[in-house]
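Worked example 3 (structure in, sequence out).
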């Protein structure tokens, strides 16, 4: 089944058109990578799908597991199983990470008509996942992301994914700010979430992330459009040759 289907999507930010007729299909069970130069619209795509304010969809369609995604509010998209991992995770002073996680999880369950998770069950699961991500439980008692290193923030994002169990992941430059060791821990956490029932869209500038999170398909995004798609070898070509040859195609 197709997890995400986008057709001729046009998106404007502050009256400037960024995405200009983008089309993309990501089936369940597959990992697709979006690569492109700065300003191509990669992050805009993630924000628009997640429903971020000021990212106005002015044309086209996007369906998620057969339902109109663009017709849903932000919290409805999250409850339906869409998760956006931020390039720069936000700090939330005064809100312990554990409190944030359990509140988010139970809010989504309530919207779906499911029973809330009990405190003992939540703590049991979060300890299990945190250990695999090398997250100290003391860190989870601190305000969310406040004073965290770049690697700690990204590991916290993966912990959220594992706890919320979304149906589709959008990873916006997850490798940003990570050293080699942190990149491996984060990538292992993401790979543990690969499933026949879950699709993923990995947004990145660089091949190095795709050495750890192997994509099924790679798409080149230039000037608001996908100008070429191919297998994992396409990422290696981009790393070696850059995007110059595609700039004319997008014009």
């Amino acid at each position: 089944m197709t997890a995400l289907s986008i057709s001729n999507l046009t998106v404007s930010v502050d009256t400037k058109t960024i995405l200009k007729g983008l089309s993309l299909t990501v089936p369940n069970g597959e990992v697709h990578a979006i690569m492109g130069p700065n300003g191509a619209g990669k992050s805009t795509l993630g924000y628009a799908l997640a429903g971020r304010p000021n990212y106005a969809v002015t044309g086209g369609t996007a369906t998620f597991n057969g339902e109109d995604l663009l017709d849903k509010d932000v919290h409805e998209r999250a409850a339906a199983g869409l998760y956006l991992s931020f390039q720069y995770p936000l700090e939330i002073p005064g809100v312990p990470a554990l409190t944030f996680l359990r509140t988010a999880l139970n809010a989504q369950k309530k919207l779906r008509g499911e029973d809330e998770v009990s405190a003992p069950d939540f703590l049991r699961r979060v300890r299990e996942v945190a250990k695999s991500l090398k997250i100290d439980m003391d860190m989870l008692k601190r305000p969310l992301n406040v004073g965290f290193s770049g690697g700690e923030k990204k590991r916290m994002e993966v912990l959220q994914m594992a706890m919320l169990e979304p149906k589709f992941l959008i990873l916006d430059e997850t490798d940003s700010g990570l050293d080699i060791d942190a990149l491996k821990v984060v990538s292992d956490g993401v790979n543990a979430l690969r499933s026949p029932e879950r699709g993923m869209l990995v947004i990145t500038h660089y091949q190095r992330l795709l050495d750890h999170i192997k994509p099924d398909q790679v798409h080149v995004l230039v000037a608001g459009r996908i100008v070429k798609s191919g297998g994992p070898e396409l990422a290696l070509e981009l790393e070696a040759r850059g995007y110059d040859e595609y700039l004319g195609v997008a014009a």
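Notes: Residues 97-111 form the longest helix (15 residues). The chain has a mean pLDDT of 91.
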